[in-house]
């Protein structure tokens, strides 16, 4: 430093500006360099605003970078520093890790963790009343109660005082008028109340107690440890991890709970509140901007102690995160497949490792990956084999549809219809589950065989009869349901093929005209709000028969539900994806797990054409372990994850030829490395989406191969993406 200034003085050059690297939210591989203006204080992690070309962007000051390499004349200054704590070293390491693992631009990953903190209007002060002494002109019993309450010298809000004294507001107002109170102003109440670990102490006994103490131990140890709670639906897993949360709170740590469908789990928030006396802060994409701003701030400053959020909550820059819970860890919703492709479950484990604190994964049907980690001891396994209290698992039976076919034009077997009738007669609830939105998945012309396909995707148009539309579930394209075939012009010969939930509802209404039915599907007009209300209505027993997609499968507690009927148990098995069996098993277990959670005798019926299929056998036998052993064995043989590694490259372009040529070019550029091979290119499972043609390359590597290095080399050596060509990289793809 000294020699530098001496040097400057000797040669009379202007002082060298301090130069720092800044990550900008653009698809570029590295940080850009910026000058720090005189008097501006920045450090690594500072959230700043910087110019890039003609525009201003939000960015994060980073470390390293070769400042000398920048031409000082081209250097532009940082515009401003936002008034918020800088990202911690822990958070910065996490961002770098995610960026290099997913091969995503670091600035785009960092963008998920920062916000330009808007200047929030300060919350107004709260007007309050303080007893100034004296007596009222007339002492009515109501007035006496108010005076009893205010004897201590603490201020009260007007309504708080009326409530505490059990009198109407006018009584309080009358006393105010007589000058018995002075007005004082109090700071606004905190945005979120602090959860209290000892607000209620639940009775935890037996297997729950053992499980809880093992998990609480990892929180006490306060270092990285991953646990997996593997317990049947209703076994009390939530209650067990609440104990871990309580311990983390006692130790002054912040807690993150990841949930797959947070927007629909109002009941979870209430349950948390019942245990801790305050709700956790929510974080998901339906959050209004102001709430989003407040939660982000509260997390950064440490004011908020617990967040329950969707996968993106993993990138919140907590001040002192000390525990992560990943509930329903197997859920596909944890995988983001947009811009940055990442699995929040896996990245959560990384975050816990970098931050050196414990993480708890929770599921009734753990992913094969987590099962294997449990078996090899990488995760500490905790089992809860039976339901809590006197609730029993539902009795599960297969309905062989070859032997018990539905009547013509129907999809429900007589066996199923009888079971529904019996349930409704008893005043209990039945759920008919079909994971298919709309009325019918395909519309066909009986005369010429024309099928209605999306003009810009390789998918059929799905009929939605309530809306009188046919829709593409890929891109949202829709048109009015046609009356004539566009191919042959014949009227009234279009037929709906196969069922969706709307069609099942129609069948139910035909058979049970008196029953109260509710359809639960994401197509409901009214969105999340309406869905929350419907879920509440179901829980309150305001429906006899519920017809639903996977929206009803997750986490809900419906006390009266004693029958779960799976309309098409084979549905998920047909698509040729090696993960199909696992996914189907998980979904079916979860749906049937909605039945009988409060001790009523309950049943599950699964309509299938393949009763011998291992998934069906695993479900009805209640023995998941045989199924998992088989799945794990097959993955191991084929060196599929977690016994090998996979990445997929989707090459898309406006023309089929361009997409294919580029994919071939990449394939040709693939380096020769033992243990890694490239499959394809082949048309991607969805060959056309929104008018873009898609080809896929699959890179398969042995467990310890350096996939990231391989992919980087391949992309660098391959053709540059030009024109409409785009390459999307997905490390650890969901389907393969
Ligand atoms: P899971 O998360 O495994 O599906 P839950 O934690 O939701 O199971 O528990 C199932 C039901 O049992 C819930 O209604 C819950 O309130 C109740 N329950 C579980 N553990 C306890 C406990 N220790 N004390 C009281 N009720 C409990
Ligand atoms: Zn489409």
Describe the structure in brief.
This protein has 736 residues and is α/β, with parallel strands linked by helices. It contains 20 helices and 31 strands. The strands form eight sheets. The protein has a seven-stranded parallel sheet, with helices on both faces. A six-stranded parallel sheet has the order 17-27-26-18-25-24, sandwiched between helices.
Molecular structure report:
- There is one protein chain.
- With 736 residues, the protein is α/β, with parallel strands linked by helices.
- The protein is 31% helix and 23% strand.
- Strands 10-11-9-12-15-8-16 form a 7-stranded parallel β-sheet, with helices on both faces. A 6-stranded parallel β-sheet has the order 17-27-26-18-25-24, sandwiched between helices.
- Helix 2 (89-102) packs antiparallel against helix 11 (344-355).
- It starts with a helix and ends in a 5-residue tail after the last strand.
- Mean pLDDT is 90; it is low at 1-13.
- Zinc ion binds at residues 454, 456-457, 459, 472, 474-475, 477.
- The secondary-structure class comes to alpha/beta
Largest sheet composition: 7 strands, parallel
Oligomer: single chain
Strand % is 15-25%
Q: Which range best describes the helical content: under 10%, 10-25%, 25-40%, 40-55%, 55-70% or over 70%?
A: 25-40%
